[in-house]
Each structure stands twice: as C-alpha cells, then as structure tokens.
Design goal:
By secondary structure, this protein is α+β, with helices and mostly antiparallel strands. Helices cover 26% and strands 31% of the residues. It has 5 helices and 9 strands, in the order αββαβαββαβαβββ. Strands 3-4-5-7-2-1-6 form a 7-stranded antiparallel β-sheet. It has a two-stranded antiparallel ribbon with strand order 8-9. The longest helix has 18 residues, at 2-19. The radius of gyration is 24 Å and the shape is globular. Residues 193-215 have low confidence and may be disordered.
C-alpha cells in the first residue's frame, strides 16, 4: 500500500505540472482512509470495509487579470496535453462570468466575483480527472478546496495550502488544479445487500406453541 500511495502522489504531481499555465504558489495534499458504511438492507451501504485515496491540489499563478481569457486558455491547454475538457462545465463557467461577473452582481443583486465561479473538469488519457477553479488571490478560501476526513476514518497526510503565499499574489488571479487517486480498498465479502430480509424473532406465549417465521 505504501508503494501504491507513492505512485499515486507522483502521477498526480506529473499531471498538475503538465496542466499548469503558471508558476506553482502552493501545493496541498490530503491522504485518507475511510471506513465503509453498512446499514443493510435499507440504510447506507458501501461495498468496502476501507477505501484509501490520495488528493493533490496545486495553486498556480496567472499572467492575466481577465477571468474570461483564463477560462478559455485552460480549456484549450487541457486539450493540448491530451485531456478532454467537460464542455458543459467550461461553458457554464464562461457564461456565469459573462452574466454575473462582468456586471459584478447576480440576478438577485448580490455581489458576484471570480471566487463565485463553479470551475471546470477534464478527463485525461490515464482515466484520471482533473479539476480547475479560477479564483482571486485575495479572496482565496481554503475551505472551498480542502475537505478534511470526517466520521470514522484515518488521516494519513494532511498538508493544507499556504494561504499567506497565495494571498501575497493579490490583486491577481490564481488557478486551482486538483486531481486524486483511489489506491487501496478492502472490499466486503458480499458486494450487495441480501435480496430478502433476515428472519424475524419468534414470539412464544405461556401455554401455547411458539409463533416463528416459517412455522
């Protein structure tokens, strides 16, 4: 498992380096193992006892202050390096900036900035997905990009982004690139819940026979 985790981390770093159009400002890592939930037959059910995954997120600088130009540039660059951008996601991000970001407010009159944009994704040749978010250095919020292990799990590595380094690039724009790998899992012996409910309890009464499911 140690070798698989190391290989995942190296592959993630390689992809983020290829995808970046700017210099790296901060790199963060989260590596966790989560316990699968089991509440069959009606509740939450995971097909694994444990599932381990590694996520790398990198914040890179930008040479432009125009979000529309940045969105277009990354959409084209991801195709060049052999990834397939999610056209609908990039279309939505570009349209939201045109509709709300340029005027600076949404349809309800609330303030709208580049930090409110949804971002895009792309699927790369090795089956790995990469996420792309466009943000202001001044408004960067670690809570948006880093989720911590919750519930019954184990955190192996947790390196949050360097907020001071990112905000030092204000008033410019930054791009957040992230990708992850599921590198280990312990599957349940049965991947599906039972097709029929388990037998119920017997009801026995004084002076009579027991009333049990099936006779």
């Amino acid at each position: 498992m140690v070798a698989a985790r190391a290989a995942a981390a190296a592959d993630e770093q390689d992809l983020l380096t290829a995808a970046a159009l700017g210099e790296p400002i901060s790199t963060s890592v989260q590596d966790t193992c989560a316990r699968g939930r089991y509440s069959a037959p009606w509740g939450p059910y995971d097909s694994y006892y444990w599932s381990c995954g590694h996520v790398t997120s990198r914040v890179v600088s930008s040479g432009t202050v125009d979000p529309a130009q940045l969105i277009s540039a990354y959409r084209a660059h991801l195709s060049v390096i052999g990834c397939k951008p999610d056209e609908a996601a990039f279309d939505t991000t570009a349209e939201y900036w045109e509709m709300y970001g340029i005027p600076g407010h949404n349809a309800n009159g609330e303030a709208y900035t580049v930090d409110n944009l949804p971002g895009g994704t792309a699927l790369c040749n090795d089956g790995r997905s990469i996420g792309v978010a466009f943000r202001s250095a001044a408004g960067f919020d670690t809570k948006t990009f880093f989720t911590y292990a919750e519930g019954d799990g184990e955190t192996i590595t947790n390196e949050p982004p360097d907020l001071a380094a990112i905000r030092a690039h204000a008033p410019g724009l930054v791009v957040v690139l992230n990708t992850g790998t599921g590198y280990h899992s312990v599957l349940r012996e049965e991947s599906k819940t039972p097709s029929t409910p388990e037998p119920g309890y017997c009801a026995c009464y004084s002076g009579s026979t027991c009333d049990c499911p099936g006779g």
